[in-house]
Specification:
Protein name: Methyltransferase-like protein 27
Number of domains: 1
Number of strands: 8
Oligomer: single chain
Strand content: 15-25%
Number of helices: 9
Pfam families: Methyltransf_25
Bound molecules: S-adenosylmethionine
Shape: globular
InterPro entries: Methyltransf_25, SAM-dependent_MTases_sf
CATH superfamily: Vaccinia Virus protein VP39
Order of helices and strands: HHHHHEHEHEEHEHEEE
Length: about 230
């Protein structure tokens, strides 16, 4: 058989699948819009394998988020809240950098119990945010809020940003990393997400510390974005 026939077979498609090392559990966690209660069920089932699966996928979001926070030169005793903290991967990275006063909030009790075993946060707060829910936290309680992997379909969206701003002191920071937008739903188009961020700049609640920047390998082979915002309310 002439070799050219092989070249025309669906080799590219097979290669693409082989090249994508993300397992189905990771791929399906964030790919579809769904009520957050369903997302919590998803994480409950995934909880015991989450750290191994994200490690296998060389998940760099927590490290990149901690580096972004470190660049803001807050004191190591600054009060920090890790929102959508999960099993505490961001908390672990912040601890490596010397931050000593970090709380974790997540909607999933199952994930926070794993974080608790690592002893990475001072407080473990089980709460859902978004959709006009009020976090069980005071105004201006934190010097900074950090998030990694929190913004995606079925998770958090820009509607929760005013609530995050409420709990951060004026002059404090909110910074996050997230997967790039290319794989996501219509609602998660980059321009729409950024419009939500910009609107809060226009009304004077915060301003950008830098333009959002891209980094390689949020998960292996997938780009990520970093945002750092200064709260100016
Ligand atoms: C991809 S995991 C990221 C966890 C952790 N930040 C990390 O980097 O490993 C997304 C997290 O968001 C949490 N989450 C999703 N929707 C939420 C909501 N509406 N309120 C609070 N937590 C939520 C999930 O329970 C999960 O822990």
């Amino acid at each position: 058989m002439p070799q050219t026939q092989f070249k025309e077979l669906p080799q590219v498609q097979i290669n693409e699948v082989a090249k994508d090392p993300l397992n189905e559990v990771i791929k399906n966690a964030s790919i579809q819009e769904r009520p957050c209660e369903e997302t919590m069920d998803y994480y409950k089932n995934w909880a015991s394998d989450y750290d191994k699966d994200t490690s296998d996928a060389q998940y760099k979001g927590p490290q990149i988020t901690a580096e972004a926070l470190e660049k803001l030169r807050l004191p190591k005793t600054a009060r920090i809240l890790d929102v959508a903290a999960g099993t505490g991967l961001v908390g672990e990275e912040l601890r490596k950098k010397g931050f000593t006063n970090v709380d974790g909030l997540d909607g999933s009790q199952a994930l926070l119990e794993i974080a608790q075993k690592k002893n990475v946060y001072r407080r473990y707060i089980t709460a859902l945010i978004g959709d006009d829910r009020k976090a069980p936290l005071d105004d201006n309680e934190y010097d900074a809020v950090v998030l990694s992997g929190a913004f995606s379909p079925g998770h958090l969206y820009t509607d929760c940003l005013p609530e995050l701003i409420r709990i951060v002191k004026p002059g404090g920071y909110i910074c996050w990393s997230m997967r790039d937008f290319s794989c996501y739903s219509e609602r998660f188009r980059e321009d729409k997400f950024n419009e939500g961020v910009e609107e809060l700049c226009r009304v004077g609640l915060w301003k950008k510390v830098h333009e959002p920047y891209t980094f390689q390998n949020f998960l292996v082979g997938k780009e990520g974005k970093v945002y750092s915002m200064l709260v100016t309310k």
